[in-house]
Amino acid sequence: MGYWAITTISPPGAEQPSENFQAAAAEALGARVLRQSDPDLAAYNLRLARADFRFATQAPRSGAPRSNWHPSAFCAVDLYRATGEQPYRDEALRMRPR
Question: What is the pTM of this model?
Fold first, then answer.
């Protein structure tokens, strides 16, 4: 099975948490899809998803209000679905638009 990598779109050194949220969501989905057919690759995807999510939640954010669901909320939902871990559910609820 071949592998492909997601390369950055932002210039080096630019902090773009939204890109990490999007990558983490894709990695969490990959972990769920591959859980049965390739457990090792699924576990690797999950490790990457957790790392990308952790980085993105710790990155500085602009003060702009969110008018709709932000990629961070979708990512937290995907991680919750992949892991069943309550902190991701709580984070998704915290990030939802009000």
Answer: 0.69
